[in-house]
Amino acid sequence: MVMVPELSQIHVLEMPSKTSICTLKPETDAKLGMPMSLRMWQPNTGSHPLLLAGYEDGSVVLWNLSLGQMLSRLTCHQEPVMSLDFDAERTKGVSGSSEKQLCVWSHKGQEKLELQQTYQLTNPGISEVTLRQDKKILATAGWDHRIRLFGWKKLKPLAVLDYHTSTVYCVAFSDHKKPSERLMAAGSKDHRISVWSIYNQT
To answer: How many C-beta neighbours within 10 Å does residue 41 have?
Structure first.
């Protein structure tokens, strides 16, 4: 599937046929603004795929794709949600925005999103948040040119990687079969891509 943001709506298409599955439309008075970040997952229990969407107004919204229905809305940021990621095993996620704050939230019973924890950053602006596949490390790409690493379980700061000379736009982990061979890569406005070996034995 692919999600296509358009104004406040999200069009869900099945690939490669591009068949329309549904269109997610917030209520007129919701005033969410544009969807800025999307993450879909299939719960272990139940057959309905779910979608998390971060919006321009600072909200994270949980959608049921089968019903095209909004299940929960959590306003956890004062600025647009630039990126989010989700840990399906722990049913909790993380989001970053253009402000100085990371938010960790959980997906509790009855499809409700609840704020669990916040972390104040030194400088404003997060382009992307990414969880490593083993769900032990969280990486953030910062507008302050830095990559920050956290232990995901307790959001403990682990390292600040200061290599780039401009905004870091994206960060991603490889999924090599051997943990010792897994790498992290980051891309920046400075036209450079950095590749790192990060806590591979954790």
So the answer is: 15
